[in-house]
């Protein structure tokens, strides 16, 4: 899918009906006069795909999915204490603002996409289209709805479960469903999608296919710890023709968008159509001149210093791991936080800070050539084939079949130029798989959900807090109450507006 647009781009009809009894003007786009042709449904699907950007490719996504974890932190900027900056410190586990715009944006983005998919699903089976087209449209919409509900349930717990389009006030304010009910709806949607979607074919076009649906379903089963079912889905994905690219860094090159390693990714396109990505820029330092990084005349004073890899994260890579220099770069320079004077780019491999210089590690995966400031062509990965292999290793190890897990784990390690693992002790191999997953999928908004899924979030993040408080001791901005992670902080709060208008019960602790 080369271009993403919304339904709002549909051309308004200019003619008027002579039948004055028609209560819906022909110039108005409604569900009654819109869902009539294949083109109409494709336009609606594009709008549903576009909603994934706000849910899984936005500031909220990487703040809540990556900065909440031990992979990244932030460059604390005392010169700007505006609400938008303070909110991103939510990740330090001491803020409990139920009126957070950041959290509300993610919650609302998911439901916007769900509303769009519900309209499609309500209309498509009665549309005057071939059964083949109906199946494909139904499958894609079911896949997208499942993906969005999977996002919601992991970050917020049980949420209102809207499975048909809202037609009136009586439909608009549903109570929170249980976590189990949400997961059952997700599984049903994905099974429907699998039965209707096209098989995987290459080159891919960015739209959902059977492989993407099975991968999400496998992730769901891993999350609810149904390892035999996860194994079953992953075994099918692994046989669908996906493959690892030869070099890890190649995965993120623009020429390899939707490659044989891609299972599903958010589509972007640079240019003046409003379809561009820009997530490189929040990840690099605040500076009046970032051209040494970007390769073009550019500044970054409006926003940067976020999602910064920690040195503990850098140390998580084994010696010789080719993923380290492909994933992380280091900037050195002078000047205060808020306007760094960048004078050199360095590799993180065996890095030794230069005395008298400021050091800023940054995410390098999304650094690609572009012509316009904050207008990049990078897609954002949601699932890659390497995750399928590592998930299979996890599913097998959790079933006590550690030796069977090794080929899948080692296929990923071999691409990174690392020695194969021979360990078959279940607990030790569990730790190896966790570390391997961390570095392979670093900065792809996976780590926080992985810590939740493996019941490691409290232990890991409290330990990370000890590390950060020591590392930033001289800056004294992390209060003593920060990083006191408890069960109540494993979910984010339901946005206050939703609590008030829907009479919803808030998550414990908020």
TrEMBL record:
Swiss-Prot/TrEMBL keywords: Cell outer membrane, Membrane, Signal
Similarity comment text for this entry: Belongs to the SusD family.
One Pfam match: SusD-like_3
Protein name stated in the entry: RagB/SusD family nutrient uptake outer membrane protein
Location of the SusD-like N-terminal domain: 19-222
Domain RagB/SusD: residue ranges: 260-510
Keyword Ribonucleoprotein: no
């Amino acid at each position: 899918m080369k271009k993403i647009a919304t339904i709002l781009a549909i051309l308004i009809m200019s003619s008027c009906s002579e039948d004055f009894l028609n209560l819906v003007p022909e110039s108005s786009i409604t569900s009654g006069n819109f869902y009539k042709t294949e083109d109409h449904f494709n336009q609606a699907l594009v709008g549903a795909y576009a909603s994934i950007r706000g849910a899984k490719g936005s500031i909220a996504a990487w703040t809540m999915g990556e900065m909440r974890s031990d992979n990244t932190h932030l460059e604390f900027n005392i010169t700007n204490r505006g609400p938008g900056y303070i909110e991103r410190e939510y990740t330090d586990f001491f803020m409990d603002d139920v009126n957070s715009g950041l959290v509300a944006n993610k919650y609302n983005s998911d439901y916007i996409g769900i509303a769009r998919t519900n309209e499609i699903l309500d209309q498509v089976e009665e549309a005057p289209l071939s059964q083949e087209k109906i199946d494909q449209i139904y499958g894609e919409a079911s896949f997208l709805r499942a993906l969005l509900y999977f996002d919601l349930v992991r970050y917020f717990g049980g949420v209102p479960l809207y499975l048909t389009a809202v037609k009136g006030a009586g439909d608009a304010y549903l109570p929170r469903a249980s976590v189990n009910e949400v997961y059952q709806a997700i599984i049903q949607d994905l099974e429907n999608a699998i039965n209707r979607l096209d098989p995987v074919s290459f080159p891919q076009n960015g739209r959902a296919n059977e492989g993407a649906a099975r991968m999400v379903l496998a992730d769901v089963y891993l999350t609810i710890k149904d390892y035999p079912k996860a194994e079953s889905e992953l075994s099918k994905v692994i046989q669908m023709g996906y493959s690892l690219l030869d070099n890890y860094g190649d995965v993120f090159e623009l020429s390899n968008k939707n490659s044989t390693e891609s299972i599903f990714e958010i589509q972007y396109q640079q240019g003046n159509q409003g379809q561009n990505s820009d997530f490189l820029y929040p990840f690099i330092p605040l500076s009046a001149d970032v051209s040494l990084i970007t390769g073009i005349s550019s500044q970054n004073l409006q926003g940067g210093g976020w999602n910064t890899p920690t040195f503990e994260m850098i140390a998580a890579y084994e010696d010789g791991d080719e993923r380290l220099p492909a994933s992380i770069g280091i900037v050195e320079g002078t000047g205060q936080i808020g306007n760094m004077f960048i004078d050199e780019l360095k590799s993180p491999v065996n890095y030794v800070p230069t005395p008298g210089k400021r050091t800023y590690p940054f995410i390098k995966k999304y650094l690609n050539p572009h012509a316009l400031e904050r207008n990049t062509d990078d897609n954002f990965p949601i699932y890659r084939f390497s995750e399928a292999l590592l998930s299979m290793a996890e599913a097998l190890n959790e079933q006590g079949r550690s030796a069977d897990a090794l080929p899948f784990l080692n296929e990923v390690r071999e691409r990174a130029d690392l020695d194969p693992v021979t360990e078959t002790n279940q607990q030790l191999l569990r730790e190896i798989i966790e570390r391997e997953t961390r570095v392979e999928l670093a900065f792809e908004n996976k780590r926080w959900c992985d810590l939740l899924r493996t019941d490691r979030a409290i232990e890991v993040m409290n330990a990370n807090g000890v590390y950060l408080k020591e590392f930033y001791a001289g800056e004294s901005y992390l209060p003593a109450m920060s990083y006191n992670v408890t069960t109540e902080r494993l979910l984010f709060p339901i946005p206050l507006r939703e609590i008030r208008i829907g009479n919803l019960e808030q998550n414990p602790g908020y």
